[in-house]
Amino acid sequence: MLTLDSIQTLACGGLFLLVGYMIRRRVPLLMRFSIPAPVIGGLLVALFMLACRHWGVTPIRFDTAWQQPLMIAFFTGIGFNASATLLKVGGRQILLFLALASGLAVVQNLLGIGMAKAFGLPPLFGVITGSVTLAGGPATGLAFAPLFDKAGIHGAQSVALANAMAGIVLGSIFGSPIAAMLIDRLHLRPAHAVAGANIEAPAPIETTDTGRAADPTYAGLKNLVFMLLAMGLGAWISNGLSRLGVTLPSYIGAMLVGAAIRNLDDWLDWFGLSTRGMELIGNTALSLFLVVALMNLHLWDLAGLALPLLANLAVQSILVLAFCCWPLLRLMGRDYDAAVMASGFTGFMLGTTANAVACMSSLTERYGPAPRAFLVAPVVGAFLIDFTNAIIITGFVNGWH
């Protein structure tokens, strides 16, 4: 049996990440459903390991020591992008949309718990198949999986991946049709003279340190150093909270520190951090985290759980679609932009922000621009919901453990 150390495992993951991108470019269906390239590459390895297990062989053993630091780096990047400046741009609309998404995340967990009990499964199984993997997506699911494993959910990582992947597909399938139905039935059309007249997408929060900001090496190094600083300080915060008996994922402290540094920098302009730079580091860490995590995924743990997963996904999909048709559409203005937001809401509450943007883009290509929707939905889906969802999940884990 070949054993790869942590660096070799990371290199192998990077190779299959590139393979995932290559496959996605050549298979239009994968691009249409916004299936992430790390998921494609990692699943290739996981399926190969599943086949080898069927033959009674374990050809490779991976050292996933880099998995947790990469995961923490991604969520730290989420923290650095949580700028109060963005809330000022969208104002009430962003806060309302976030409140609706957070409220539905709670309902997703309650519904998941009910479905789990119906199948004789532990309540926390319903949480991991609820907002953890639907509102949260594969990254949040894999990040929380160790906590659920410790709480007695066997194969939590495999369950998280399966539910998140199915949610991505469903979000892509339902996102555009539900909004198109609302637009046609209610005769909604973009108000070109009004929509977005006073709303512009937030400009990237960039600074220009005279002399130094022109050096891309310095700018990149500065962003990386502050991210590492947030991760280090965040580890102390997370450890302190753990000693108080609060069950939290390891990234919470780093994400909070990142958000604090970002908003301090917005206020005082001390550090000159680049939003795009932090996003690049965070997204790179996410891609490597996902592919490494999936390479070591035990798909055989899903045996016997297909029916509960499918039943839960069916009910959760109905919940999200019904929520979009009435309270969300009505509260967001019952206009064309609100319908496009419903499409994005379906995308990221069942899948990821990539699904949300893809669904909204397909609608605007057909019906016309929706500037307010493209301001509100991506801001909430990309990182604000991760903050509130982490709090919601933590409450359920501590309450039902």
From TrEMBL:
Q: Name one Pfam family in it.
A: Glt_symporter
**Transmembrane residues, as ranges?**
6-23, 35-56, 68-87, 94-118, 124-148, 160-183, 218-237, 244-261, 281-300, 307-329, 341-361, 373-397
According to its UniProt record, where is this protein located?
A: Cell inner membrane
Enumerate the UniProt keywords alphabetically: Amino-acid transport, Cell inner membrane, Cell membrane, Ion transport, Membrane, Sodium, Sodium transport, Symport, Transmembrane, Transmembrane helix, Transport
Coarsely, its chief localization is membrane
Kindly give the membrane topology term recorded for this protein: Multi-pass membrane protein
Cell inner membrane as a keyword of this entry, yes or no, is yes
UniProt-listed PANTHER family? SLR0625 PROTEIN (PTHR36178), SODIUM_GLUTAMATE SYMPORTER (PTHR36178:SF1)
Protein role: Catalyzes the sodium-dependent transport of glutamate.
The family line of this record is: Belongs to the glutamate:Na(+) symporter (ESS) (TC 2.A.27) family.
- Quote the protein name from its UniProt record: Sodium/glutamate symporter
Name the gene that codes for it: gltS
